[in-house]
């Protein structure tokens, strides 16, 4: 079994899968949105939310839950979880800024130092990521406030981790390379790569950045390699009724799917998009009498979707993918 010597205990779960050959070169930080370590550990077990992390942390209690050789199901992103060691940090207070204790912060920094040293990657703003940044910088996962106050303290965390690894604070020389871009809009990296002719591996590296710069230059945009609103508008002309999720593998469905982490329920993002679809159903005569267009997927919405799908001779599964979405707005 591969896990950090810093771990104070183990509670292994089968909620994990293969890394499919990916090399570990990232560390992704999450907060648990609870003060209870036992609650998190129970959640990782089969029958919970089909979610896990390589580690769970509360104060000085660091519990290994998924062997580092395996991909934990943490970030709702296959591409990022398979190349990262992930952690869920319990909060010291529920709500507000969602802080963590000093002991949790210190142990987290020590773990980052240990993992980065063992796998041979630098500690900087690109290799150490927060859950929130997967969406805001790379267009992966979903919009979220996770990891709470740890997002604000990320710079402090990087410097402390570097200290424990025997290195100086983050400087210009240790910041991410200038030739590596990122995504600032809700667009999957693979769809951008296919558009600009880069290898569609889901990783926004130097090759993708170079291809994006060529695309931007051809469209008379600032060639900075960053895929933002102007690049997106040029590459993907907006259709107000286009399917709003990152790509065709995503769908609107239950909050806690049993088999697919690409189910979007509206609880953690895209609530306005789901509300738009619900309003369209109501306009077409499908009733949502109890909750109406609330932007949340539940039994009432699923029932109305199934009626719509049956009437339009679509697969009756109650889920809204590109086909069902298109049929509703046709």
Write a structural description.
This protein is α/β, with parallel strands linked by helices and 330 residues long. The chain has three domains: 9-174, Peptidoglycan recognition protein-like (Lysozyme-like, 3-Layer(aba) Sandwich), CATH 3.40.80; 189-235, no CATH class; 251-329, Muramoyl-pentapeptide Carboxypeptidase, domain 1, CATH 1.10.101.10. The protein has twelve helices and ten strands. The chain has a six-stranded mixed sheet with strand order 1-5-4-7-3-8, sandwiched between helices. The chain has a two-stranded antiparallel sheet with strand order 2-6. Strand 4 (55-58) and strand 5 form a beta hairpin. Helix 3 (102-119) packs across helix 6.
As for the CATH topology of the largest domain, it is: Lysozyme-like
Major sheet strand order: 1-5-4-7-3-8
Q: Specify the CATH homologous superfamily of the largest domain.
A: Peptidoglycan recognition protein-like
Range of strand content:
5-15%
Give the overall silhouette. Answer: globular
Q: Helix proportion of residues, in percent?
A: 25-40%
Task: Let me know the number of strands.
Answer: 10
The main pleated sheet reads as:
6 strands, mixed
């Amino acid at each position: 079994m591969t896990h950090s010597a810093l771990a104070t205990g183990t509670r292994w779960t089968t909620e994990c899968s293969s890394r499919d050959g990916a090399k570990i070169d990232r560390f992704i930080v999450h907060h648990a949105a609870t003060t209870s370590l036992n609650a998190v550990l129970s959640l990782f077990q089969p029958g919970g939310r089909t979610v896990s992390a390589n580690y769970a942390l509360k104060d000085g209690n660091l519990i290994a839950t998924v062997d580092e050789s395996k991909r934990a199901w943490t970030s709702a992103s296959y591409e990022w979880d398979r190349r990262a060691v992930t952690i869920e940090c319990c909060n010291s207070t529920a709500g507000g800024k969602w802080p963590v204790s000093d002991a949790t912060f210190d142990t987290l920094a020590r773990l980052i130092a240990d993992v980065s040293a063992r796998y041979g990657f630098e500690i900087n703003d690109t290799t150490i990521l927060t859950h929130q940044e997967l969406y805001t910088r790379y267009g992966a996962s979903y919009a979220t406030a996770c990891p709470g106050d740890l997002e604000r303290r990320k710079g402090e965390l990087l410097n402390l981790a570097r200290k424990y690894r025997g290195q100086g604070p983050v400087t210009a020389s240790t910041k991410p390379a200038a030739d590596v871009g990122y995504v600032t809009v809700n667009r999957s990296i693979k769809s951008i790569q296919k558009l600009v002719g880069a290898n569609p591996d889901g990783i926004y590296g130097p090759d993708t950045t170079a291809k994006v710069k060529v695309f931007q230059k051809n469209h008379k945009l600032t060639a900075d390699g960053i895929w933002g609103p102007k690049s997106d508008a040029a590459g993907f002309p907006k259709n107000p009724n286009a399917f709003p999720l990152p790509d065709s593998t995503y769908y609107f469905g239950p909050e806690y799917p049993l088999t697919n982490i690409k189910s979007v329920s509206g609880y953690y993002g895209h609530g306005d998009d789901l509300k738009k679809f619900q309003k369209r159903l109501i306009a077409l005569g499908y009733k949502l009498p109890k909750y109406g267009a609330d932007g949340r997927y539940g039994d009432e919405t699923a029932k109305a979707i199934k009626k719509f799908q049956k009437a339009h001779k679509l697969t009756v599964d109650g889920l809204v993918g590109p086909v069902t979405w298109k049929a509703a707005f046709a």
